[in-house]
Design goal:
The complex is a heterodimer.
Chain A lengths: L2 H9 L7 H16 L3 H7 L1 H9 L1 H15 L4
Chain B lengths: L28 H10 L3 H25 L1 H4 L3 H22 L9 H20 L16 H4 L7 H18 L2 H12 L4 H8 L3 H21 L12
Helix pairs in contact in B: 2-4, 2-5, 4-5, 5-9, 7-10, 8-10
The chains are: A mainly alpha, B mainly alpha.
Chain lengths: ~70, ~230
C-alpha cells in the first residue's frame, strides 16, 4: 500500500461501522463464531466486522480473545 | 481533567442480543456450572471465585505477554499489570454475572472482561513513559505517519497542505485535539481515552466524525486520491 492509499484508507468511514460500544458488547459472540468461521462471523455481525476493519484497539482485543480461547487450559 | 461527553448513536447492528430463549435452557454444562457456583454462596462460591481468578490471571498474563512489544516493560511490572487486570475483571464478572445470557460459553464471556482490562491498563501505562509535548502540532510528522515517500513529495505535498487546512477549518476543537494527538503525536487511542477520562467509544466517534469531515472536504476540493465512494 502506498502512502496516498494509506491516507485514503484512514479517511474512509464505513456507514455500517457500529462503533466501539456495540462491538465490545458483541465481541465474545463474534469471537466464538470467528474462531471456527471468520467469514460467517463477518456476515452475521456486519456492523461489528466493519468496525473491526477500522478500529485497531477493538481488533487487538478480538485477537487477544481468540488467543485466550484457543490456548490450552491447565 | 477534561471529560468528553458525546451522545453517540452509531447505526444499529442488524443482529440482536436477545432471541427470546431462556438463558438457563441453552447453557452448556461447563457454563452452567460456573453460573451455579458463582451465584451460590459459602465455600463453594469462594472456591469458584478462586478458580475464576486463576483462569483470568492466566489469560491476563498471556495477553500482556502478547502485547509486551508495545509496552517496553517486562518482568515484575508486566506481571503486576496482569494481576491488576485479573482482579478488576473478576470484580466486573462477579457483579455482572446476572447479565450473562448464555449466548456464548461462560469462559469466552469472562475472557472478554480481562482482555478489556488489559487494554485499559496498557492505555494508562502509556503515560508512564517519557513523552513528547502533546500540544505540539508537528505537521512534518504526517507524511511519515502514512508512509509517504519523501522522494515523491511533489505528488503528495499539495494534498497534505489541503488536509492540514481542512483540519484547521473543518473540525471542532475537540475533533482537532483528538486528530492531533492520535495522528500527529501517535498517541494510542486507549491512552488518549485514559488521559481524557473518557471511553473508547466516545473518542473513536470523535475521530470517526473527523475522518468523515476531512474526506468530504478533500473530495470537494477535487483531490483525486480521496475516493468518495463509501464501499470498497
Amino acid at each position: 500500500m502506498n502512502g496516498l492509499s494509506a491516507l485514503d484508507r484512514f479517511l474512509h468511514t464505513d456507514p455500517e461501522d457500529v462503533g466501539c460500544g456495540q462491538a465490545m458488547e458483541l465481541l465474545h459472540l463474534y469471537a466464538e463464531l470467528a474462531a471456527t468461521n471468520a467469514e460467517a462471523a463477518a456476515e452475521r455481525y456486519r456492523g461489528v466486522a466493519a468496525h473491526l476493519r477500522d478500529c485497531g484497539p477493538c481488533k487487538e482485543d478480538l485477537e487477544g480473545l481468540l488467543a485466550a480461547m484457543t490456548e490450552p487450559r491447565p | 481533567m477534561a471529560v468528553v461527553r458525546v451522545r453517540y448513536v452509531m447505526p444499529a447492528d442488524p443482529t440482536t442480543l436477545d432471541d427470546g430463549l431462556d438463558a438457563s435452557s441453552r447453557l452448556d454444562p461447563e457454563s452452567a456450572e460456573w453460573v451455579r457456583a458463582l451465584t451460590g454462596s459459602g465455600a463453594e462460591r469462594e472456591a469458584a471465585v478462586v478458580r475464576l481468578h486463576e483462569l483470568l490471571l492466566r489469560v491476563a498474563r498471556g495477553e500482556v505477554r502478547r502485547r509486551s512489544g508495545l509496552l517496553r516493560v517486562d518482568g515484575p511490572e508486566l506481571d503486576d499489570l496482569a494481576h491488576q487486570a485479573a482482579a478488576d475483571a473478576l470484580l466486573a464478572i462477579t457483579s455482572k454475572i446476572g447479565q450473562f445470557r448464555g449466548e456464548s460459553r461462560f469462559s469466552t464471556w469472562a475472557y472478554k472482561f480481562v482482555i478489556f482490562e488489559v487494554s485499559s491498563k496498557i492505555g494508562r501505562h502509556f503515560w508512564r513513559r517519557p513523552q513528547v509535548p502533546l500540544e505540539a502540532e508537528d505537521w512534518e510528522r504526517l507524511p511519515d505517519r502514512f508512509g509517504l515517500d519523501p522522494a515523491r513529495e511533489s505528488e503528495w505535498r499539495e494534498l497534505i497542505t489541503a488536509l492540514r487546512r481542512a483540519v484547521e477549518t473543518e473540525l471542532t476543537d475537540r475533533q482537532r485535539q483528538v486528530f492531533v494527538e492520535i495522528v500527529l503525536n501517535g498517541v494510542p487511542l486507549d491512552a488518549l481515552v485514559a488521559r481524557l477520562g473518557s471511553n473508547r467509544n466516545a473518542v473513536y466517534k470523535i475521530m470517526f466524525d473527523a475522518r468523515r469531515k476531512l474526506r468530504t472536504a478533500l473530495a470537494a476540493h477535487g483531490y483525486p486520491h480521496v475516493n468518495t465512494s463509501e464501499q470498497r
